[in-house]
Fold each of these.
Amino acid sequence: MRAGAVTRVLIADDHAVVRRGLKEIIAETPDMVVAGEAASGEEVLERLKEGEYDLLVLDITMPGRNGLDILKELKTEWPDLPVLILSIHPEEQYAVRALKSGASGYLTKESAPEELITALRKVSEGRKYISASLAERLLRTSAADQKKPLHERLSNREYQVMCLIASGKTVKEIAEELSLSVKTISTYRNRILEKMNMKNNAEIIHYALKYRLVHF
């Protein structure tokens, strides 16, 4: 976000009454403004292409594609956009998955308006917003992940891209094979390196050969 500027918020929820309520809460905060609204996942992507936003408040349950699917897609195109999930679903149901998919925070719709503003400010500053109970759950999940092979941390698409990289294909070749943009494949590659604590393609190839994920 631009230093000293007003935070431009995009609200995505299929219920008009919820969007209106959020607008009224945010309107009382001088350093934030609702700059756009969306009632479906597809509208979220349209709004992001049409204008500039500093923060997205995203519901999970919406018509068509759900919020988590949209979250994964928008994070490939707008990886630096902070996303706060605001959902009717309890933390234990979706929070961990949402954060692993790229969300900056998770809040239930039962939360107080003051907590919403606190969460919005925190994620707009590039930080994470999670409750104490969710923090404990994430620690337990992280500890369990450490016992698994590194590639188990990857999503299905990331795993697919990793195997193609390990087979010696270039980013451009992978993009053509999967009918995706070079930028998208590069984003997947960066995520793979981060999740697997690696620095380059050579380490990916070495790992894939060690676990017999590819064959030459």
Amino acid sequence: MEKYAENQSFENINFSEKGFTKGEYENCTFTNCDFSEADLSETIFEDCEFIHCNLTLIKLTKTALRKVKFTDCKMLGINYENCNEFGFEVNYENCTLNHSSFYKKRLFRMTFINSQLQEVDFSACDLKESVFKNCNFAGAVFDNTIMEKADFRTSYNYSIDPETNHIKKAKFSLSAISGLLYQYDIEIDMAN
């Protein structure tokens, strides 16, 4: 049975045990909920917010994420590449997205703030004009990624090959410039 929920708040619910009812959720807030390994496939989330939730290993096949904000969430091992493309818009603050994949996703003008993006796959993504504030990219993969006008100035631990990615007018800080030159195996002395 599909559900329609609008302007509702869901708090302290363990959807991993209880199960999650598929349907359409509009302008809903999920706080301190556990979705770990839940199947959210073919569900529509529009103008929703997830706060302090565990979404580790959720399934998102044909799931619509339209203007969805995640704050202080644990989101390990998620394949966003399976999401519905129509209206896809997500923003993250203080989230852990390690080992996730955005392969071929259009993340145009998205915002990632104070988030862990370790070993995340951004291959063939469109990150144009996205903002990454204080994000950790250790082990993240960028290959044939469009980063035009993206802002990486306060982020760190990235390794981005300018020859295999589109970085025109992207913003980087001088202190992290080695992340753009790693493939040349050179030493950069920042003291002088």
